[in-house]
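Anyone have tokens for AMP-dependent synthetase/ligase domain-containing protein? Sequence:
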Amino acid sequence: MGDSEGGSLNSPLREKLGASDYLSVWKDYGVYGIVGAVVVGILIPIVLSSVFMGKKKEKQRGVPVQVGGEAGYAVRNAQASELVEVPWEGATTMAALFEQSCKKNSQYNFLGTRKLISKEFITASDGRKFEKLHLGDYEWQTYGEIFDRACNFASGLVRLGHNLDSRAAIFSDTRPEWFIALQGCFRQNITVVTIYASLGEDALIHSLNETQVSTLICESKQLKKLAAISSGLESIQNIIYFENDGTENDISVSGSMSNWTVSAFSEVEKLGKTSPVHPSLPSKNGNAVVMYTSGSTGLPKGVMITHGNIVATAASVKTVVPNIRRSDIYLAYLPLAHVFELAAESVMLAAGCSMGYGSTLTLTDTSNKIKKGTKGDASVLKPTILTAVPAILDRVRDGVLKEVEEKGGLAKNLFNIVYKRRLSAVEGSWLGAWGLERVLWDVLVFKRIRALLGGDLRFILCGGAPLSADSQRFINICMGAPISQAYGLTETFAGATFSEFDDTTVGRVGPPLPCCYIKLVSWEEGGYKSTDKPMPRGEIVVGGFSVTAGYFKNQEKTNEAYKVDEKGMRWFYTGDIGQFHPDGCLEIIDRKKDIVKLQHGEYVSLGKVEAALSTSNYVDNIMLHADPFHNNCVALVVPSHQVLKKWAQQAGINYRDFSELCDKAETVSEVQQSLSKAAKTAKLDKFETPAKIKLLPEAWTPESGLVTAAFKIKREQLKAKFKDELQRLYG
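Reply: yep, here.
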């Protein structure tokens, strides 16, 4: 997400998130550790189990409610009799929330970045060069200082000549200046267009031209790309670039930029400081952001997000994070152009937390860009709150398990014993509620694993895609922090449902946030009805303060997906299929667009099958394909390099490169057998299991345009790129 050179989140974990660190977890467990595990794992439970045995009472988290609009089964948050709109009185816009929070917390640390000490390039065995950074401690600016910078930037924009009736765009990786620029624009009621730094040229041109952006804010490394497409950009007048972003600030590009005013970010701040302009503050219904989604089909759509949408989600998520407070530290590294990160940082702003900026390439001590022997972002910052997409958490889990497997022997047995005991406690069988066993296991085994992400995590927010039950439980145990799964969309500014910190179940996404209602509307064709027993099922429809204004200059799509009921409430039809559990928590079970009817009339849910097959150790990524003119499915599989190479070595398979290994019949057979086993475990029907597969050696990354920034597959793009391969599978 927002990755640049040196790899992506689909790279092997040991390169990206520091899998080699996991090995060190085990080498210090000598006799004392094993004896301690035996004492805790066997003797203490025998003595105390009878005292603490008992079933936990189920908490009611969502309750049925009568609402307007299309008939269905609607639920609201059990703790909110009325929908929450603002975090506190008067904070009706992001401009107001920002100013009030900055004044309230003016002397406290707000935004932090690491100082670059040195950088060097190393050459790999295959000739590729990789940049390695030595980064220092975090250097902080206070809430008061950041507020002043945002005000200065806002004034500088006006003095620079930005037309206040036009939009500004931010085209950059996540960094403090991104956030400052956003807040500066809000102070002059300027709508901001957010664009992924990894967006391709066609999508970039489309986004900027459709919104008629006059000022583009970017990193200096993007200037050459902009110069190359300048002839296709219709409305750009000003370019403002961020300095000191780890690249040379080369603005001596071609004459194609001669019609633009090109300025450094610091110059705009200075201009505004010396010549301040009175703010022009927005209204709650005004458009704050036009956010271009890296959607799974076609060109990206711009979602119009109001100030009211943002503050409503921020206010609601604050109620979910346990005791969020000024002393919390948040590690910001996901793309701010993604709704999940922007929503999370808005929550931290409202709570008065500190935010330290990092990147996926510098996250841990052995991440791709971290110089050997120096510290990654998490080790230095020691965050208490972290956001993550499932792709990251899945790889953390895989990395730990692979290293445990490789270590073998006593270390493997110890981990398995302790993990099972800790799992029993988390699931509430006994002792877990009291906490003694948790404390002992944490001290004996998990402390060193947690040090990989700083050691102080107390809460993890997960969103962007479904998190598997295995990964959720695994990370919860090994990192010792509750994971709250969020469900939301850009169209609801991430605000739909959020699992609560004390909910130890897996596979669900919690009750509705207090800012909205969730309604299930029957989808007769798919066989999902809101009257189903014991759990209502249907298309998920979100209504309330987080529902956005629609798609920019696309009334047809807006009319398809948004409806306003007789009471004036906006509802967004997600296309996802869900079911409500008796306690009011939502579970995502299907997606309308992912259901394909085969030649003989059977329905296949592509997403459901892909999730089941992804449990195979051989699978790094997978796309199931079903053709209505055939009676079976096929699949494209990106195999795990590490796992497949290990199998080849053990099987005595010779090959020149990984591509050749993927083409070998015995390799395809091995992976297909693994998929069949996973399908059988998940109780899939025969027609749901791919009859043939194609192994693809290259990872699918956001840069390649084959997955979104949240690493959800782009089905149409994959089908187009691998059209010939899919035809051959059916041949």
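The chain is about 35% helix and 20% strand.
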